Amino acid sequence: MRIALLAPLPPEKNGIADYANHFRTALEQLGVTVLTPLAGVAGTSEAIKHAVATFNWQTVDLVHAELGGGRLGEFLALRELRKAYSHLPLTATVHDPERIVWRRERLPFPLNLLERLPSPLPQAAVVLADPLTLREERQVAKGLTRLVTLTRLGADCLRLRMQLPTGKVAVINHANLAVPPAPLPALDTLRLLYFGFIYRGKGIEDLVQALADVFAQAPELRGHVRLTLAGGTAAEMAFGAGGNYLEQLNSQIAALGLTDAIDWRLNLPADEIAQTIQAHHVMVLPYRESKKLGLLGRQRGTSGALSWAAACGRGAITSDARAFAEEVASGNGAIYPEGDVAALAEQLLRLARTPALARDWAERAGEIGRERLWPLTAQKFTEVFAEAIAGARHGA
Predict the structure, then answer these.
(1) 152 with 244, same domain?
(2) What is the DSSP secondary-structure string of 118-155?
(3) Is residue 79 part of a domain?
(4) What is the pLDDT of residue 243?
(5) Is the domain of 157 the same as that of 199?
(6) Which of 5, 332, 345, 378 pairs as cysteine with 364 (C-beta 3.0–4.6 A)?
(7) How many angstroms separate the CA atoms of 146 and 141, rounded?
(8) What is the per-residue pLDDT for 236?
(9) What is the per-residue pLDDT for 291?
(10) Pair (163, 304) in one structural domain
(11) Is residue 360 packed enough to be buried (19+ CB in 10 Å), middle (13-18) or exposed (0-12)?
């Protein structure tokens, strides 16, 4: 089997690039030939049209795309390919359902005139153009042979929003690497971990405030609960219109008197991720939904960080944003209403006072990790691909 993979790849620093890289490796280990015709190609219409026109698509059995993360290039390529090759099997993993791309490359006239005006006029223009965006998404989705989501909730929401028939969207859970199990650290000090990219929208400030609330309610726990903030910092995300987010976090931590209770592991090297996670008891992901995106739809994907927690045999406390409730529903963690700092503090306090929960969650997380290893996941994808290829040949 020869496939063309349309996806970001390292050295790009984002979760989908990491996912696509592991995906490619796992497929190749199963004997699948994976070509990457969009590698290094800009995500503009002109660049994508040139790349589509210059690659020999008849040399591949199927094209698979990774869609999400605010990127447009892969979406544009799928649209061009369906126009040019009506029988070529096209599949895609949609990382941010219920939408596929959320925004257009260019706003139509006269809405494009609002893009240079002060906020909130550019955002209003995107919302006003959304019916056109949604129509284009539905056209592309209809032209795909099969779509894949990482959660059941994501599949249901995507199918309804894209008006797809039952059975066109498959669910293949987020895979993880094989990580040798490691025992939990001693339970005399509860070690909490936030892991992921560090920028606005991840709710990290909620977690910091919740930890301060825990110490206010139970002063005896100070010195027995520690939080590590670990992950990547991308300059374009950390330094935004709202100022330097890292500095703001540090200022909040100092103002709350938490400097001695919080550790930092910024830009964590890839080969230290597993040991860092396993040096903690529980991962905490306090994500908040984007209010701006909320005007366009609901994000019902999952998180690469949560997949790492399972791989490393660690439970998680998460907000109920995205499809996190589904991901921690089988005894591997707990959820709380997004943005509810008091509820998050209550979960942290419960864990601190009942540390055996961490052991129970870790055991179940380890089981999930073993069920979702990349070789098993890649095999599921090859089955979807084989069905798509067979169906295209039969249709031809």
Answers:
(1) no
(2) PTTHHHHHHHHTHHHHHHHHHHHHHH-SEEEESSHHHH
(3) yes
(4) 63
(5) no
(6) 332
(7) 9
(8) 42
(9) 72
(10) no
(11) middle
* Strand pairing category for 315-319 and 333-336: parallel
For 54, 59, 241, 287, the CA distances from 206, given in Å and listed in that order, are: 49, 50, 20, 9
- Strand positions, DSSP E, 115-250: 146-149, 169-171, 190-195, 225-231, 239-240, 243-244
Could you report the average pLDDT of every consecutive run of 10 residues in the chain (396 residues)?
A: 97 91 98 97 96 97 96 97 96 96 90 88 90 96 98 97 96 97 96 92 95 98 97 56 80 97 94 97 93 79 94 98 94 97 98 96 98 98 97 70
141 to 100, 158, 162, 197, 268: CA distances (angstroms): 8, 10, 7, 29, 37
Q: How far apart are CA 389 and CA 95, in angstroms?
A: 23
Q: Judge if 363 and 388 occupy the same domain.
A: no
Q: What is the CATH classification number for the domain harbouring 59?
A: 3.40.50.2000
pLDDT for 240 equals 45
Task: Identify whether 183 is part of a domain.
Answer: no
What pLDDT shows up at residue 100? Answer: 95
The tokens describing 142, both together, are: 């209809």
Q: Which two tokens stand for residue 141?
A: 């989705």
The total of other beta-carbon atoms located within 10 Å of residue 276's CB is: 18
| Residue carrying the six token digits 């055991």 | 363
C-alpha 360 chain-centroid distance: 25
In this prediction, residue 296 carries a pLDDT of: 85
The reply to whether 75 and 23 lie within a common domain is yes
Which residue range forms the structural domain that includes residue 30? 2-175+373-395
pLDDT value for 363: 98
**Global confidence as pTM:** 0.91
Inter-residue contact 376 to 357 (CB < 8 Å):
no
The span from the first CA to the last CA of the chain, in angstroms, equals 18
The string of DSSP codes covering 15-71 is HHHHHHHHHHHHHHHTT-EEE-TTTT--SSHHHHHHHHHHS-GGG-SEEEEEE-TT-
- Whether residue 203 lies inside any domain: the answer is yes
Together in a domain, 26 and 160: yes
379 shares its domain with 355? no
Q: How far apart are CA 240 and CA 259, in angstroms?
A: 24
